[in-house]
Each structure stands twice: as C-alpha cells, then as structure tokens.
Write a structure and sequence with these properties.
The complex is a heterotrimer. The longest helix of chain A has 33 residues, at 48-80. Chain A has a domain at 52-236: Orthogonal Bundle (MetI-like fold). Chain A is an all-alpha fold. Chain A has helices at 8-29, 40-45, 48-80, 87-99, 102-113, 118-129, 142-167, 170-178, 183-212, 216-221, 228-239, 242-266. In chain A, helix 3 packs across helix 9 (183-212), helix 7 (142-167) crosses helix 9 (183-212) and helix 9 (183-212) runs antiparallel to helix 12 (242-266). Chain B is mostly helical. Chain B has eleven helices and no strands. Chain B has helices spanning 2-29, 46-53, 55-87, 91-106, 109-122, 129-154, 159-165, 170-199, 202-207, 214-223, 228-256. The longest helix of chain B has 33 residues, at 55-87. The two termini of chain B are 32 Å apart. By secondary structure, chain C is of the alpha/beta class. Chain C is built from 15 helices and ten strands. Helices cover 42% and strands 17% of the residues of chain C. In chain C, helix 8 runs parallel beside helix 9 (230-239). The chains are: A mainly alpha, B mainly alpha, C alpha/beta. The B-C interface holds B 36, 56, 59, 62, 65-66, 69-70, 72-73, 117, 120-121, 124-128, 180, 183-184, 186-187, 190, 194, 209-210, 212, 220, 223-226, 251 and C 1, 3-4, 7-8, 11-12, 14-15, 18-19, 22-23, 30, 35-36, 55-58, 60, 68, 71-76, 210-213, 215-217, 220.
C-alpha cells in the first residue's frame, strides 16, 4: 500500500524522543562521572539501604494494588450488573476524579488528614468515645501515604474491571445458573475467570504508577517514608549523581518489564483498556 | 432481592463518597472566610478574587492550556499518520514500530521524565516551554496511535486504494475517504492527549525549569502549607473537567443514537 | 463529521491564540530565589522603574539550585545561594565576578559581611539576608522556655517535632547537640549523629520532615517544636503569640544568603541593576520587614528602627552569635552526608 510513508514522522519522533533518551540513560548507567565504562553504579545499588527502599516500595505498591482490587472489584461488579438505571452517569462519576489534577487529588488529603481536618477530627472523636486520651496523628504516617495512593489509583482499577464485566455475555451466567450452580459457584467458576483480563490490566495500571510515585510520599508522609521514586528524583535533582540515578531508573524499568511480562503470560492480552 | 440491591447501591455510594469527599471538602473550604480549616467564618469569594489577581497562577494556567492544546494537536497528527502508515506495513516492521509505542507506554513517568531531561540537556536545549511541549507530545503519541489503530482495522482496507485508482490525489483520499472513517478514534485520541497533558506532573517536573505549569505550581504551593487559593483553583478545575466530560459524554451518546 | 472538524478547528484556534499572546519581552531577567523569600511588591517596583520584566522562579534547597545551574538547561540571571554553596560555586567557576562599579549601594552593608570568609572581598556575591537556625516552639505546650536541642528528642513531645528535610541543617544541629563541629567529616561523629536522628524518628517524637511547611504547622498549632530559620520564626511569632524562638546553648548555625550572577546569565546588565536595587535601603527594609529575616543593610536597619534592631530573634545578641558557626562546603564528604540522609528518611 502507498500509505506506509505516513508513518515516517511517527518513527522519527519515537526514535528521537523515546528510544534515544532511553539509550542515554543506558549510557549513563554504565559509565562513571568521567565517562569510563563501569558497573560500579549497579554495585552501589546493592547496598542494603537502597535494596531496602526498593523492597519497601514494592511492598507498598502491592498492598495498594490489593486494596484497590478488593475495593474496586465489587464496585465494578455491581455497576456492571445492570441493576442501576443510570449506569452511564455512575461510571462517569468514577472517571471525573481521574481527570482532576493528580496534585490536587493528593493535596485534598492534606486538608482532610491534618489535625483539625474533617477525617482527623472524626477519627479522634470516635477514639475518644472509646476512651483514648491522646490525639492520634493521621497525617505524616505510613497509612496516610497508602491512603493517598489508593485514592489516586482506585479509578484505574475500577474502569478496566467494569469494561470487562459489562461486556461479559449474561447468557453464560444464566446458563451456569440453569445448570444448578449457586451464586458463589457462578462467581468463582464463571464470572471471576472471565474477568481476569480486566483484573490484570487494572493491576498493571495501579501497580505501575504506585511503585514509581514520588510526590505522595513527600506530601502525605512528611518526607520520612522515602520510596524508590523519591530516590531517583533525589539522585537527579539533589545529589546530582546522574550515573547512579540512571542505574536506578534502569533497575526500575527492568522490574516493571519483568512483572508486565509475567502478567502477560498469565493474562489474556486483550484485557479491557480504560479508554 | 431488594435488600441486595440496596446493599449494592450503598456499597457503590460509599466508594463514590470516598472518591468525592476530598474534592467536596476543598470546594467547601474555598468559600470559607477563615484561612484556618478548623473553623467556619462565613461565606466569601475572596479566594477566587485572589486567584484571579495572582499573576503566577494565571500564567501557569496559560502554560498548562497552551502546552496541552498544542501537544494534543501535534500528537494527534503524528499518531494518526503513524497509525495509517503502520497499518499498511507488513507484520514484521509493524511489530517493530509498534513496540516503540509499547515501550513508551510501559516506561514509568519518572523514567520518561529524567531520560528526556538528560536528552534535552545533552542537546543543549534550554529547559522551558518548548522542552515541556516536546515531552508532552512524546508521551501522547502512543495513546493516539492506539486509539486510531482499532478504527483502521474496522474499515474497508481497500477504500483508500480505490480512491487513488479513481483519480483522487493521496491528500484527497486521506481527507475524504480515510479520515471520516477513523475520525472517532482520532477525536478520542485528541481528547485523551489533552487531558493527559493537563494532568501531568512528573514528566513536566523534570523537563522544564523557569516555566511552570499548574501541577508544578500547586506542588510548590502545597509545600508551603494549605492555601485557600488552591482550594478555589481546584473548585474551578473540577467544574471545568465536569463540564468537559459531560459535554463529551452527551455528544457521544447523541452520535450513538 | 462536521461537528468533529469544528471541534478540531476550535482547539487549533484556541492553541494559536494562546500562543499569540505569549508574554514575549525583550528585556527581562530571570531571578532564582528561595520559596517565599521576597516582598512581591519589590518586584513590581523594580519592573516599573526599569521596564525590565522579572521572571521569578523558586527553589527549596541549595542543592536543588546548584544542580539546575550546574547541569545547565536553564539560564538564571540572579540566584540566591547560601554561604557554603557560594563557596562551592566559586570553586567550580560557576559565578561571574561582580562589577562593583555598578553596585553603589553595596556600601550600605555591615562591615563584617563586606568581606565574608566564603567569598573574600565579596568578589562574587553580595549579602541578601542572614540569620540563625533554632527551635521555634509553642510555649503553651512546653510550659516554659527551652534552651537545648535536647527538647527535640524529648519523648513528652510525641509526634510534635518537625525537622528540616535538608541534610545540612538537620544533621548540623544534631552534631551541635552532640558537641561536634557542624562541618565535620569524621565518620564516627556523623554515624553518631545519624543514630541520634534515627532514634528521634523511631521513638515517635518526630512528626515530619519539611521545609517551607514547618512554620505553617507551628502557627496552626499542629506541632509544638520545629527546626526553623530565624526569619521564619519571626513571621510565625507575629501570627501566633504563643510561639517563641531560641538558639540553643549547644550552639547552632549562622548563615548568609547572597545574591550572585551565574556564569550562564544572559542579561548581566539587568542582573546588576536588580542586585543594586535590592541593596537600596528602603527596598532592603521592605524585604526584611516582609519575610522577617535580618538584613545586612545598615541603612535599612535605621529605617526599620529599634522595634526590629532590639528584637533578639531578628538581631541576635553577640553571645548568641559567638556560639554559632557558618556552614562550609564539605565537598568530599558530601556523598557521606547524602547517604546518611537517605538512610534516615527511608528507614
């Protein structure tokens, strides 16, 4: 066909602004400050301090993904179940916060969690009813960071799940019921397996930004729970060791590509996208 | 059955409450006369006035909109043409070129940000408006590509060639035959790019310095502590996003009919 | 179809029009200053008088500013680094020598800051503000005066202490508390300070590390003690009368922030004009009054009057200054400092 040439700008652009930058990161990661080849950057990464941060970030991102899945699945399931009249509006309501500015979404939690904030006041009031004497601080804690992550990424879990669940052929469920399966069996044996592609793409869409975030931990964690993203940012904008920062970026990319690869092996590639 | 329906409704409402509570709080506080959150001192529009008198915020708003609009347009052109071109290719090169887009989408924002920063500094480009624009186009292109490709698969593969055979110029064939068929994909790519740009913080953070967009400005303001002007700004942005989405939603539902 | 095209066209137009009205000014300077560190009116006055457009950009830490300047990618005409950072920038040839002919107001500065040890003879920098580092605390919580860094480790202030998210400051005062030099490169001393900070975090005394938000939290009564710079203390005390400031007896840091012209500056002429403008007595007084830091400008002090000069926070007495030291560049130990900070904040 004669339209192949139309791809030229795309190919050039991607080579310049996607491939070239990644090659530069590769270069930096394998050289020292004078430009000599070295593996030193990866060796210094093996220091327990950095490995510890890496594992904590992964753990936190997994926990966040799990919570999003547990909270988001029922919501998507109920929405897809057609028992609501205004499904379109409801699903739109899940999309709107996603399109609000990411910084504002995080900032909003500052207001709620600080002492005197709505949630902090409520929680402390309840605790006092149960006899607590000291005020509990909600902001600047591990839980606050986790909460901020869940809040930011929950819609990314709900939407792919919803897409897959609502496309599911209702007759399959009916058939299973006709064949005598009870509701739990129908869910476990039919609905859940069929919705796995949605689960996989939801998990991907939550885990990926969660493991690399660097703002949430700063704003809601009071800079005392630095995550892997914070370390990378710090290497580039504070310490100025770009070689080491590049090595860390590569480690992160490798980690994500491997986990994506694993997901793809288990999940169907045609998972429901968000959009 | 009724009870389960009630339970489902309750659950979905609770999740929605979780999603909206923070936003609603910001909106309420944006009208609070007191700067402190602990008390309500009466209703005021002062923070909105302050917002419109704050040159910095207005400038950041302008930068955000300009970058988002330009980036969305450029990315849409490149991505759409790219999709048409890739679609015409044989499997081998197509997979290769598609994998570039996949790589870009799988790269975490922070790595895109730092790698582009290295590239720009390496090329001695001063970080600012233009580098931010380049970065935004780059992360938008794959999204446009992937929203146009499915539409191409749906259309008649030979329509374009038939038009050429009937004497149309390539440009005429593109605009009159191809484009109308894939337009829904192009438009959703455009809108998606625009909103992704509006929302972006991480990539902008690394690819600009003097020129700030809204996200970067909010970040530096939030570090100074809570500021009711940000609340007013959030309220306006929230209303704008809501209006935009309702508009798009209505438009598409009309078209579906 | 037509609807879509009109939507596209509308977006195009929108983009173009936005583009057309971009503020393009021939004569402008870019000023790189700390967050919340100038009286905004001063910028307006400068723009009005000279017709030079000021593009004002902020940073939060010296290190951040250093990297942005070192790696290029942006050109700033005037920057406001602190003493030890000025020292480092001079060593790395990152600054332009100042043309003192164009800075007639320089003589307004106090004698001891006309020839500081980080920049002998003020060849590359002029002082902008100076101050101390100390504890800002809420007297209703502490119930009395505080005079030791030990208070920041006291377990009765659980989740009530704010430290700075800045390795030199937080580690520096810890070193002072332990009786060491705050510019030390001794591994054992740094290790001890690190343990002390980890202890502060693990015992639950620490609420958060912050920079600019610390004063906001103390004014709002959300924390009882915070590590702050003296100017922030002064503005906070004006907003909340329960707050008090002290420079602990174990010693602390005294610092100067200067104005410099980076080697990459484009508008050197405009930069000199701006720097000289900032040293005018009435302008320096306006800034000092607004941000609460002490001005080195003696003519400005006269304008400010005894209300300021006799305030111990604003103008610390000699015995306080005697126990304070300047920071110096720790060059080869910098990595050690950074690693310590990662270990503490990521623990």
């Amino acid at each position: 066909m004669k339209t192949k040439g139309f791809a030229a700008p795309y190919v050039v652009w991607m080579l310049l602004f996607t491939i070239a930058p990644i090659l530069l990161v590769l270069c930096y990661a394998f050289t020292d400050s004078s430009g000599q080849f070295t593996l030193q950057n990866f060796q210094s990464f093996l220091d327990p301090i950095y490995i510890g941060v890496l594992f904590r970030s992964i753990g936190m991102a997994l926990l966040c993904t799990l919570i999003c899945l547990l909270v988001g699945y029922p919501a998507a399931y109920f929405l897809a179940n057609r028992s609501f009249d205004k499904k379109g509006v409801l699903i739109l309501l899940f999309i709107i916060p996603m399109w609000m500015n990411f910084l504002l979404r995080t900032y909003a939690w500052l207001t709620l969690l600080e002492s005197g904030g709505l949630i902090a006041t409520l929680v402390n009031w309840v605790l006092r009813l149960f006899g607590a004497k000291e005020e509990v601080r909600l902001l600047y804690s591990y839980q606050a960071v986790l909460m901020g992550m869940v809040y930011n990424y929950l819609p990314f879990m709900v939407l792919p799940l919803y897409t897959v669940l609502s496309k599911m052929d209702a007759r399959i469920v009916e058939a299973a019921e006709d064949l005598g399966a009870n509701r739990l069996q129908v869910f476990l044996r039919v609905t859940l397996p069929l919705s796995l592609p949605g689960v996989f793409s939801g998990v991907t869409m939550v885990f990926m930004p969660a493991v690399t975030t660097f703002v949430i931990s700063r704003l809601l964690g009071g800079a005392q729970f630095k995550l892997f993203g914070d370390l990378i940012e710090q290497q580039f904008l504070f310490t100025g060791d770009w070689n080491f920062g590049s090595a860390m970026s590569l480690v992160m990319m490798a980690l994500l590509l491997i986990s994506m690869g694993l997901m793809n092996r288990f999940g169907d590639k045609e998972g429901g996208g968000v959009f | 059955m009724k009870a389960s329906r009630f339970f489902k409704g309750l659950y979905v409402s609770l999740v929605l409450l979780f999603l909206y509570l923070p936003i609603l709080t910001l909106i309420v506080y944006s009208f609070n006369a007191s700067k402190s959150r602990a008390k309500w001192d009466g209703f005021t529009f002062d923070w909105y006035l302050a917002l419109f008198q704050n040159e910095e915020i207005l400038k950041a708003l302008y930068v955000t909109l300009a970058v988002a609009a330009l980036a969305a347009l450029i990315a849409t052109v490149i991505g759409t043409l790219g999709a048409i071109g890739l679609f015409a290719m044989r499997r081998g090169p197509r997979t290769l070129f598609l994998s570039m887009a996949n790589l870009s989408m799988l790269t975490p924002d922070i790595v895109i940000g730092v790698s582009l920063m290295i590239l720009f500094l390496f090329a001695k480009l001063p970080l600012g408006f233009w580098t931010m624009l380049l970065a935004h186009v780059s992360f938008n292109v794959p999204y446009v590509l992937f929203s146009v490709l499915p539409k191409l698969k749906q259309m008649n593969a030979h329509a374009y060639e038939a038009a050429l055979d009937l004497g149309a110029t390539p440009w005429q064939a593109l605009v009159k035959i191809l484009l109308p068929e894939i337009l829904p994909g192009v438009v959703s790519g455009l809108i998606l790019s625009f909103t992704l740009s509006l929302d972006d913080f991480v990539i902008s953070f690394f690819t600009t310095s003097e020129v700030q967009n809204l996200s970067i400005l909010i970040y530096s303001m939030a570090r100074l502590g809570i500021n009711p002007t940000i609340n007013a700004l959030s309220t306006l942005l929230f209303v704008a996003v809501m209006a935009l989405l309702l508009l798009v939603n209505r438009r598409s539902s009309i078209l579906e009919r | 179809m037509r609807k879509y095209l009109s939507l596209l066209l509308a977006l195009c137009l929108c983009a173009l029009s936005l583009f057309g009205c971009a503020p393009a000014s021939e004569n402008s300077i870019t000023v790189y200053n700390w967050e919340d560190y100038i009286n905004p009116e001063v910028i307006d006055l400068f723009e009005e008088e000279t017709g030079i457009q000021v593009n004002y950009v902020r940073f939060t830490t010296n290190e951040e500013m250093y990297i942005k300047l070192e790696k290029g990618g942006a050109s700033y005409d005037v920057a406001f680094p602190s003493d030890y950072m000025i020292e480092r920038m001079i060593q790395n040839d990152m600054l332009l020598p100042l043309d003192h002919e164009k800075l007639p107001n320089f003589t307004n500065n106090a004698q001891w800051l006309q020839d500081p040890d980080y920049d002998p003879d003020s060849l590359y920098s002029v002082p902008y503000m100076w101050g101390t580092v100390g504890i800002l605390y809420n007297t209703t919580v502490t119930g009395g005066e505080i005079d030791s860094w030990g208070a920041m480790w006291d377990e009765k202030y659980k989740k009530n202490v704010l430290m700075m998210d800045s390795v030199r400051d937080s580690l520096g005062v810890t070193l002072c508390y332990l009786g060491y030099d705050l510019n030390t490169r001794d591994e054992a001393q740094l290790e001890e300070a690190k343990q002390k900070l980890i202890e502060q975090k693990e015992s639950g005394v620490l609420l958060a590390y912050g920079v600019d938000e610390i004063k906001d939290k103390l004014v709002g009564g959300e924390a009882a003690l915070g590590l702050v710079w003296s100017g922030d203390a002064l503005t906070s005390m004006a907003l909340n009368e329960d707050l008090a400031y002290c420079v602990p007896k174990e010693g602390s840091n005294v610092w100067v922030d200067g104005m410099v012209i980076p080697a990459t500056a484009k508008n050197v002429e405009g930069a000199h004009l701006f720097i000289d403008f900032m040293m005018r007595p009435e302008i320096a007084a306006m800034n000092s009054e607004y941000i609460g830091y002490s001005t080195p400008n003696e003519a400005a002090l006269e304008i400010l009057g005894p209300e300021y000069t006799e305030d111990p926070t604003f103008n610390p007495p000699q015995d306080v200054l005697d126990r304070c030291t300047f920071f110096h560049d720790v060059s080869d130990a910098a990595k050690m400092y950074n690693d310590i900070w990662i270990e503490i904040t990521a623990n």
